[in-house]
Structure formats: C-alpha cells, structure tokens
Design goal:
Helix 2 packs antiparallel against helix 8. Strand 4 and strand 5 form a beta hairpin. About 6% of the residues have low confidence. The longest helix has 36 residues. The chain is globular and about 60 Å long. The protein is mainly alpha-helical. It is 57% helix and 8% strand. The protein is built from eight helices and five strands, in the order H-H-E-E-H-E-H-H-E-E-H-H-H. It has one domain. The strands form two sheets. The protein has a three-stranded antiparallel sheet.
C-alpha cells in the first residue's frame, strides 16, 4: 500500500465523525503521492522543485498516473504547483479506486459523508492503514492532520529526518491553510451579498 492509499482509507473512516473537506484531502493526497514517488526513486526535490527521475512503474495505478503527470521540462514544477494541479479532484479518484478494488459487498459498507455515498473497501487494506496510523508513522500523522481527518499532533514531525519529505509536508500545510483562507473569503463575500439583497 502507498502512503496516499493509507491516507485515503484513514480519511474515509475519519469522515464518519468529522467534517473532512475534499479539497484538503485532495491536497494531502497529492503530497502523499509526491512522498511515495520520492521513496520510489521516481522523484527528487531540488530546493522547491520536483525533479523527475527516470520513468518508474510502481505497481500502483494512481501512483503510476502521478509519475506520468510529472513535469519533465525545466525549470520543473514547484511542490506547491504540483499540489494544486495534481490535487484537483484527487480525493474522489482515490475513493473510486478504493471502491473498485473493494470486496463488492455493498451491505457491509458504511456511509461516507466525504462523498455522500457508500464505499466498500478491502478490509485488509483498511486494517493495514489503521495499523500504520496506530504505530505513529509521523508522515501519515502529519498528512492525516492536514486533511482534517485528525487533530494536529505536535510530535508528529520529530522523526521524519528526510529534507524532501519535510519540504513536501510543509507545502501541504501551507496549501491547506491557503485553501481555508479562500473558503473564509468566499463565506464573507457570500454573507455580504446576502446582506445587500436583504436591504432591498
């Protein structure tokens, strides 16, 4: 399993009891894919640029799609640009992919508020993701918190020890904060618009 798949599974379960925003999860998933690609040797970071390595097959369909989507022309793409471009609609893509790989037993699925439909996933994959989370994997912990699927763990980034991974995680955090600022501005604008119409 990839970090991105583990993140998607944890977020789906977390969506039962909290408001997980698809946009936040999509950004975190794009970050998880970048981290997985770094781990697979398909990607390196030079300052804030994603420098692709030789074409690599990871054996995971969505991660292979991510590798194929890397910008291969200099000056290459920034981590931030990758998160926004690759993250567009990525949460839905992962949910659909997990569902298609699931056992197909619709009766055992649980209602997933994230996308408002039932999703059946492989119970073994879910158990592996939960075990990874329970053992305190710091990368997964930071991504889960960024996606809004758990409270922030102040100890989570202590043992990461990889500059590229740390840079990606920081970029994910910044992108999620930027998205939240956009949401807040829209809420203010919508409220102001409603107030104007109430005045007539």
């Amino acid at each position: 399993m990839t970090t991105a798949r583990d993140l998607a599974l944890v977020a789906l379960d977390a969506a039962q009891g909290r408001d997980v925003e698809q946009g936040d999860l999509s950004l975190a998933l794009a970050g998880a894919e970048a981290i997985d690609l770094v781990g697979a040797g398909a990607l390196a970071l030079t300052e804030d640029r994603l420098v692709p390595g030789p074409p690599t097959r990871t054996g995971d369909r969505l991660l292979d799609e991510a590798a194929a989507a890397l910008v291969r022309d200099e000056p290459f793409e920034t981590v931030e640009d990758w998160l926004w471009r690759r993250g567009n609609g990525l949460a839905a893509a992962y949910v659909e992919d997990l569902e298609s790989a699931g056992p197909g037993t619709r009766g055992r699925g649980r209602r997933k508020p994230l996308l408002g439909r039932r999703v059946d996933v492989d119970p073994e994959a879910r158990a592996r993701a939960e075990e990874r989370r329970a053992t305190g994997d710091p990368v997964l912990a930071v991504l889960v918190a960024a996606a809004g699927a758990a409270d922030e763990d102040p100890e989570a980034d202590r043992e990461i020890g990889d500059d590229a991974v740390t840079a990606v995680l920081a970029a994910v955090g910044n992108a999620v904060m930027e998205l939240e600022a956009v949401r807040q501005r829209k809420e203010i604008e919508d409220a102001a618009f409603d107030n104007v119409w109430r005045g007539f």
